[in-house]
Amino acid sequence: MRVLITGGAGYIGSHTAVELLSEGHEVIIFDNYSNSSTTVPERIARITGGPLTCFRGDLLRPSDLDLVIRDQGIDAVIHCAGFKAVAESVEDPLMYYRNNLTGLINLLDAMAEHDVRNLVFSSSATVYHASGESPYQEDSLVGANNPYGRTKEMSERVLADLVASDPTWAVTILRYFNPIGAHPSGLIGDDPEGIPANLLPYVARVAAGELPAVQIYGDDYDTPDGTGIRDYIHIMDLARGHVLALLENREPGMRVYNLGTGRGTSVKELIAAFEAANGCVVPSVVTARRPGDLPVVYADPTLARQELGFTPRYSLEEMCAHAWAWQRLRQG
Hints:
This protein has helices at 11-22, 40-48, 62-71, 86-91, 93-113, 147-165, 199-207, 235-248, 267-278, 302-308, 316-331; strands at residues 2-6, 26-31, 53-56, 76-79, 118-122, 170-176, 178-180, 214-217, 229-230, 232-234, 253-259, 265-266, 284-287, 296-297. By secondary structure, the protein is of the alpha/beta class.
């Protein structure tokens, strides 16, 4: 298949590109590089040994999308592009709604114009309502509590309405939990601008001496060690889930799957696993809870296993080791 990946130079998109190329598919990357590096496509090519086509463009410019989809003979799209920082979305919600929602609508318009109706949408577990209980299932109550999550929730509603109005569309929505780690080669990984908002990149930068200590936001939750529990999944397992979803996304209609491990790991357990995997010490300090944080969030991935054949392969220790290999490479 010839697959367009929006945000293909970003964290999820780049690893998905590697997985697709390794399976023999052709990849076209579309990215504006607002939160990714222009060196990523070359690194993808080094990993896979295969060619890929790259376009610098913006989802907010319909002409960019029209040009790529019209001229590249696209069979399907994996939509990974979008802003994704919760705190930033609270500070500037209009930027998030404009980029994430308008970008999706522009993409759907271009796909419809050129008769491409096979889409895998990279959503998020942030769409689930805070009143729910883990493990979250695909039919658990939806209701995001921050602007970023709401853009994902609204995007899912847009897609549901589209499929209801035009049953020729085949759409798969993937709600993933906490992707971490990097490609085992260490050549690509999570490389956010500024101070990382996610835990493991922060841990890695503390271990590398770039930051003084990991902030543990609360150690008085009703969990075994008092710290929050999340479902961490290796980025390559998540990428493989996107590919499996694409291959199964042949029949018209809309499907929703959780991609996670189905088990939770606490903040302290993750720090300890990183130290054990990499033989280092990671200083940490406990601070106040963050508003809106839940004690326990993890997935029920049963449906993805049954219908997609999705089973995570990597251990927590491997996630930590691969994240450290990437950190050392980015430091030079």
